[in-house]
Amino acid sequence: MRKLLTFLIALGAVVVVSLSAPTTVTGANTVWQPLFQRPGSCSQASNFLARTSGLTGTETTAYGVLICGLVTDGIISSSATMNGPNSGSGACGSILDALYIFATNNTTTANLNLCGSSYTIVPTNSPTFTADQGYTGNGTSMSLNTQFVPSTATTPNFSQSSASFGIYDRTLSTVIGAATTVMGLQYSSGQSYIQPLTSSTTIAADVNTNTFSGSGTNSNHQGAWIVTRDPVAGATTVTIYGPHGSSTPLASASDASHAIAGTGSFAILARGSNSTTNEGSSDQVSAAFIGAGLTGAQAAAINNRINAYMGALGVNIY
Q1: C-alpha triplet 205, 299, 226: angle, nearest 5°
Q2: Which residues pair with 166 in a beta bridge?
Q3: Residue ranges of the domains in the chain?
């Protein structure tokens, strides 16, 4: 009986170990966690990670938690594959067209659109890259071309009456720059942009308009900023969210006149305009996205998931 009990105890230990895997290793100290409880386990994360190489364990886990968390939140569709072209089920689903994480191991990974194989970042004039932090501009010629052209993209989620984009800006700056854009696109029929500090107390942002300039109270560039035209709130309403993951608008105003973008592509660290850019920023940006209009809850979910990713790397802003 004693031998049988010893055997059963040993067998139980083998089963526990086989269902576990190390999640943290520091010298001789290993923290074990059951595989079925390990965070960040979903097909969408696996498909994206298969497109990367050279990630550390911390980066890999952070990506997994981010992507699977956005699936749980309904931001990324549960049927999305995240390894195909354009938008839709082969990418992130019906909300996001592009999602970029610049705080990662190298520029090859940073330039990937997490949603799929389209809209890969093309750096212009070599913005400074810092591993696990992001890209920094020079305020003039450096920028990131998303290759996302709203008017010609194939079945995009970003549309005339339902549109959003956002940026995670790490730069704690109080420099006033009325013509300093961290992300945007200028075109003849309208404009989309985020300018963190146009005066000592004001952030300005637009999406698909040429007649309205939304603004809210702000004190520095640093923040997780989102501007959206959400059809739930009414396609004529432009809303700004930020700086720290709140579902409550920082500013909101009516804008009945709006139009979809022209032939230019969205730029980051500047404002895109056909084949050129202007209004460059010298800030450091760690993440960005483009997609359909968002509710307050959806905006908060995106910002907070990105901030948690940054927290895993120890460089979060809130």
Answers
A1: 20
A2: 226, 289
A3: 98-296
Give the H/E segment covering residue 284. Answer: strand 284-291
pTM for this predicted structure = 0.86
A 10 A CB-CB count for 211 gives: 12
Residue 285 neighbours by CB distance under 10 Å: 25
Q: What is the pLDDT of residue 155?
A: 95
Chain position carrying tokens 């696996």: 46
Whole-angstrom distance, CA of residue 167 vs CA of residue 305: 13
What is the CATH code for 98-296? 2.60.120
DSSP letters spanning 99-162 = EEE-SSS-HHHHTS-TT-SSS--EEES--EEETTTEEE--SSS-EEE----TTTSSS-S--SSS
- pLDDT tens across 102-151, in order? 999 999 999 999 999 999 999 999 999 999 999 999 999 999 999 999 98
Three-state DSSP at 259 gives coil
Quick one: the chain helix, strand, coil %, rounded to 5?
A: 20, 30, 50
- Cα–Cα distance measured from residue 143 to residue 158, given in angstroms and rounded to the nearest whole number: 21
User: Letter for the amino acid at 134?
Assistant: G
* Residue pair 67/43 in contact by the 8 Å Cβ criterion: no
